Amino acid sequence: MRVVVDLNRCQGYAQCAFLAPDVFAMHGEEALLYDGQPDDTRRLDVLRAEAACPVKAITVEGAGAAWTAEGAGVSDVG
Q1: Burial class (CB in 10 A: 0-12, 13-18, 19+), 51
Q2: Residue 23 contacts residue 5 (beta carbons within 8 Å)
Q3: By the 8 A CB rule, do 66 and 73 touch?
Q4: Helices of type H across 5-77
Q5: DSSP code of 13?
Q6: 11's torsion region: left (phi>0), alpha (psi -120 to 50) or beta?
Q7: Residues 5, 46: contact at Cβ < 8 Å?
Q8: Beta strands in 1-78, from DSSP E residues, in sequence order
Q9: Chain centroid offset of residue 9 CA
Q10: CA-CA distance, 73 to 18, in Å (whole number)?
Q11: Contacts for 21 with CB less than 8 Å, ≥ 6 apart
């Protein structure tokens, strides 16, 4: 699994850091730090963070058909 964040689009709402704190973290009030290749055990949390991002700045690649946000029971909250 590969996580890509469009840092130009990110507005620092920190929903991702709340939902997947082992993968995403705020540095200060606006700078986002993240693990671009998190362990597969974090997959569901990462997909939830992707779905919760209000500006759709997060993309998860290589999640596999069985692990898409929809397949994991994650609704689009944005």
Answers
A1: buried
A2: no
A3: no
A4: 15-19, 43-52
A5: -
A6: alpha
A7: no
A8: 2-5, 24-27, 31-34, 58-61
A9: 13
A10: 18
A11: none
Of the candidates 49, 62, 58, 42, the one whose C-alpha atom is nearest the C-alpha of residue 18 is: 49
Q: What share of the chain is helix, strand, coil (3-state, %, to 5)?
A: 25, 20, 55
The token duo for 69 is: 């946000």
18-51 pLDDT, tens digit each: 999 999 999 988 799 999 999 999 999 999 999 9
- CA dihedral 32→37→39→43, nearest 10 degrees, is 70
Tokens of 34: 């993240």
The tokens describing 33, both together, are 């730090």
pLDDT at 74 over 80: no
